[in-house]
């Protein structure tokens, strides 16, 4: 007896689960929340600051700056003498403190460094007005820093920090070579001019040259640039350093000329500051104008 037909029939009458399925048998897949769209990448706005170009200078340019500065000095002799008297007064006070109370020299030098940039800006304003065809005015030169006091304040702070570091480093040099303590005023002068202290003179000269060069590199272009373009102190300092690094030989010559003229001014009891101080101030304005070219000025010139 064969059971195959009944088996076949029973299989035919039973439901085929492989073909017919209930909706409940389908896998449950809950709806996933849509992912938020990725934010658009940040695109900085175009720079609105005027573009500048560092000019390649020649070795004869510093002498041209001196000639232009002398012309400005002769054109505004009264204003120049006023600022010369200010420079002379600062030198006399510093010299008197050095002879009487040398421990306060650093404080007085910091005060001079605080006032000096503002006096220099007044001379730059005279040269700037002459360049624009305006008559120089003492009142305008004394108040030209009013709208730039934030940038000038930060720049003066930087210069004062450098001056304090310079002074502290000089004290360390003295302490290394003079283990008996800080020498008196007479001792300092004897130490500086004594050929037997050549090691001290060499180290002291190197330290002074490094800090003097750093102060010069920071300030040679930055102060007139703040006056001319009303820029911030950081941008002005960066531009000044760029000018020095890209025209190292010319700026080194310019620094040597300034040092030589200042030495000449100080020899006859500082009286040379009456004329050499304002002269160098006017010449420094032309050094800035020759070192940095503003492209927006070129565009205006082409439009005219």
Mean pLDDT: 81
Q: How many independent structural domains?
A: 1
CA gyration radius, whole angstroms: 37 Å
Helix content: 55-70%
Distance between the amino and carboxyl termini: 120 Å
Series of secondary-structure elements, N-terminal to C-terminal: HEHHHHHHHHHHHEH
Strand tally:
2
Structural class assignment? mainly alpha
Give a short account of the largest sheet: 2 strands, antiparallel
Number of helices: 13
- Uncertain stretches of 5 or more adjacent residues: 1-5, 7-12, 17-25, 299-304
- The portion of residues forming beta strands comes to under 5%
Order of strands, main sheet, comes to 1-2
Describe the global form.
globular
Describe, in plain words, how this protein is organized in 3D.
The chain is an all-alpha fold and 304 residues long. It has helices at 4-13, 61-75, 77-100, 105-131, 138-143, 149-177, 185-193, 198-219, 222-229, 233-246, 248-266, 273-291, 295-303, and strands at residues 52-54, 292-294. The chain has one domain. It has a two-stranded antiparallel ribbon. The N and C termini lie far apart (120 Å).
What is the topological layout?
Elements (H helix, E strand, L loop, with lengths): L3 H10 L38 E3 L6 H15 L1 H24 L4 H27 L6 H6 L5 H29 L7 H9 L4 H22 L2 H8 L3 H14 L1 H19 L6 H19 E3 H9 L1
Antiparallel strand pairs: 1-2
Helix pairs in contact: 2-12, 3-4, 3-12, 4-6, 4-9, 4-12, 6-8, 9-10, 10-11, 11-12
Question: In a nutshell, what does this entry contain?
Answer:
The longest helix has 29 residues, at 149-177. By secondary structure, this protein is mainly α. The protein contains 13 helices and two strands.
């Amino acid at each position: 007896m064969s059971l195959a037909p009944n088996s076949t029939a029973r299989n035919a009458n039973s439901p085929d689960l492989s073909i017919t399925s209930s909706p409940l048998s389908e896998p449950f897949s809950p709806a996933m929340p849509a992912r938020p769209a990725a934010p658009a990448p940040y695109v900085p706005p175009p720079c609105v600051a005027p573009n500048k170009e560092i000019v390649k200078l020649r070795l004869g340019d510093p002498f041209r700056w001196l000639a232009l500065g002398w012309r400005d000095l002769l054109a505004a002799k009264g204003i120049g003498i006023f600022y010369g008297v200010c420079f002379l007064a600062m030198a006399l006070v510093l010299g008197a403190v050095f002879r009487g109370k040398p421990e306060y020299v650093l404080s007085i030098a910091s005060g001079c460094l605080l006032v000096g940039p503002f006096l220099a800006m007044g001379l730059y304003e005279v040269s700037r007005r002459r360049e624009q065809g305006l008559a120089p005015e003492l009142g305008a030169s004394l108040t030209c820093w009013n709208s730039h006091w934030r940038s000038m304040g930060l720049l003066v702070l930087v210069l004062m920090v450098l001056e304090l570091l310079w002074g502290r480093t000089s004290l360390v040099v003295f302490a290394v070579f003079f283990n008996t303590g800080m020498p008196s005023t007479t001792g300092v002068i004897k130490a500086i001019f004594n050929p037997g202290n050549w090691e001290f003179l060499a180290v002291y000269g190197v330290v002074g040259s490094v800090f003097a060069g750093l102060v010069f590199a920071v300030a040679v272009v930055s102060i007139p640039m703040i006056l001319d373009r009303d820029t911030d102190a950081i941008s002005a300092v960066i531009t000044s350093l760029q000018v020095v690094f890209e025209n190292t030989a010319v700026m080194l010559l310019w620094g040597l000329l300034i040092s030589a003229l200042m030495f000449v001014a100080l020899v006859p009891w500082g009286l040379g500051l009456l004329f050499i101080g304002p002269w160098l101030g006017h010449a420094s304005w032309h050094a800035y104008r020759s070192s940095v070219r503003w492209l927006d000025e070129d565009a205006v010139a082409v439009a005219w």
